[in-house]
Design goal:
single chain, mainly alpha, 15 helices
Length: about 325
């Protein structure tokens, strides 16, 4: 894990000096704002990340030509934060702006073009439009296969994303094939505790879970979780996802007390990590979805249901949910 708080401290000291000696529209100032945004983004503080990405973008708009690649990068950063925060229409808008600039400014097989296609595919994926997601992910893969060496992490990212789409389309064997291609690259290219390696283990676990191989699924989910505990801040949304996945497997294996334990950990993090308008913060609906995965036709399941219901009722939500 990068030491993002230390990086942030350094950038903030630097920005105080630079703000005194540089013009307010100097691109170097924008680059520093952008780096601060990246640090906040990596720490999971998305509203703060957005604030600094937008500061950077305002300078780029004034200081650079309209089709400058740095403007595209700025749009891409803003779109990425909106995607994480669940504002998919805004995410799509900013990532499409980035793609338009890059198509004009860059050669057809430039890796940044693949990045834009990949980002747009990611937004469509989050919107549940899997055919559009697959279209853009495959565009990104074609560029990356031409532009990058065979063990480049971005190539692994493309394989992984295509695997995710096939998984959600119900083609689990194809999903597993692409996940394993991604994993082979990541094992060679990344350090052993890198978060992307955790995501790779997680997705292989997902495929095995969907194929009904729960012991294999649990094995890969736990490998992912060990890395995430070391590599991520304690309230990072990816840790919540990890707890949820492990809980789901325990539930499918009939170990309901373990399932409930991990589901609670998931919601505790989710509540702290995401903005109040994020889709995952529809607390009762998400919680009830978890509760009803625990069968009520046996006595122990009933008590776990009551415990979960009481816990959910004690949660304080920041907004009411319309029915």
């Amino acid at each position: 894990m990068g030491d993002y708080p230390k990086a942030l401290e350094f950038y903030e000291k630097t920005i105080k000096i630079k703000e005194k000696v540089l013009s307010p529209n100097d691109p170097d100032l924008a680059a520093l704002y952008n780096n601060i945004g990246i640090a906040y983004n990596n720490m999971g503080e998305y509203p703060k990340a957005l604030e600094f990405f937008e500061k950077a973008h305002k300078i780029f708009e004034k200081a650079l030509p309209s089709n400058h690649p740095d403007s595209a990068s700025s749009y891409s950063c803003i779109g990425g934060v909106y995607n994480i925060m669940g504002d998919y229409s805004k995410a799509l808008e900013f990532n499409e702006k980035a793609l338009i600039i890059r198509e004009k400014a860059l050669p057809p097989n430039h890796p940044d073009l693949a990045t834009s296609c990949n980002n747009i595919g990611g937004v469509y994926y989050n919107m549940g439009d899997y055919s559009k997601a697959l279209e853009f992910y495959e565009k990104a893969l074609k560029i990356r296969e031409k532009a990058l060496p065979p063990n480049h992490p971005d190539l692994a990212n493309s394989y992984n994303n295509i695997g995710l789409v096939y998984n959600n389309m119900g083609d689990y064997s194809k999903a597993l094939d692409f996940y394993e291609k991604a994993h082979q690259i990541k094992e060679k290219a990344l350090p052993s505790n890198h978060p992307d390696l955790a995501n790779s283990y997680n997705n292989i676990g997902l495929a095995y879970s969907n194929m009904g191989n729960y012991s294999k699924a649990l094995d890969f989910y736990e490998k992912a979780h060990k890395i995430k505990e070391k590599a991520l801040p304690p309230n990072h949304p990816d840790l919540a996802t990890s707890y949820n996945n492990i809980g789901g497997v325990y539930n499918d294996m009939g170990d309901y007390s373990k399932a409930l334990e991990y589901f609670k950990k998931d919601l505790e993090i989710t509540k702290q990590a995401l903005p109040p308008n994020h889709p995952d913060l529809a607390y009762p609906f998400k919680w009830f979805g978890m509760i009803y995965r625990i069968p009520l036709n046996i006595q122990s399941g009933y008590f776990y249901h009551m415990d979960a219901l009481q816990w959910a009722q004690n949660l304080e939500t920041s907004k009411s949910i319309g029915m």
